[in-house]
Amino acid sequence: MQLDGSAASLVPERPTLPKLREAAAGCQACELWKTGTQTVFGEGTRSAEILFVGEQPGDKEDLAGKPFVGPAGRVLDDGLEAAGIDRKLAYVTNAVKHFKWQARGKRRIHQKPNAAELAACRPWLDAELAVVKPKVVVALGATAAQSLLGRGFRVTKERGVPVESDLAPNVLATVHPSSILRQETDADRAEAMREFVADLKVVAKLLRAGA
Ligand code: URA
Ligand code: SF4
Question: Whole-model pTM above 0.70?
């Protein structure tokens, strides 16, 4: 049982990605292991230059056990392609590794993780950052951005602009891909996608400049 409110004691010494994944699979440091089907750990190589941080796995990710494989993942993939970033250069993970949801009829509706859950899960993300040592960290959406960059961070105002942080040489935030899917009209969706790609092009430029 690990209900001490932090995954810290589960992080192996001298971690590697396979060791971390295995240890996180049994994590019960917050209550979310009960609602999620499985721990959805990050994915990508340890030599990835960019590390994307989403909020938490969605419905599809919860079932597949892999991050960003559902609709939001498709938007991310499209964005990367449009910005000219090789998906293989990216490590993708989430601020919280279990799916938090509430039943509405037969559907499982996403619920935002709270501050205690984010804090409990943070050691996994810190360990991923320590192993991968990305040149660029990209927070996707307000939950990840505020968790990584502080509660006062405003994605709408500060998106696409590198900010000072000791997480990595370059850190920036953009919107969550799901927010693009939630736009009401095709025109709004297209505009949101253009802005997302513009932020990802900032990442591409940083990498080309040697980051
Ligand atoms: N949304 C996220 O934040 N992460 C995923 O892995 C999928 C959807
Ligand atoms: Fe552990 Fe994170 Fe899952 Fe909570 S959400 S049980 S801290 S892996």
Answer: yes
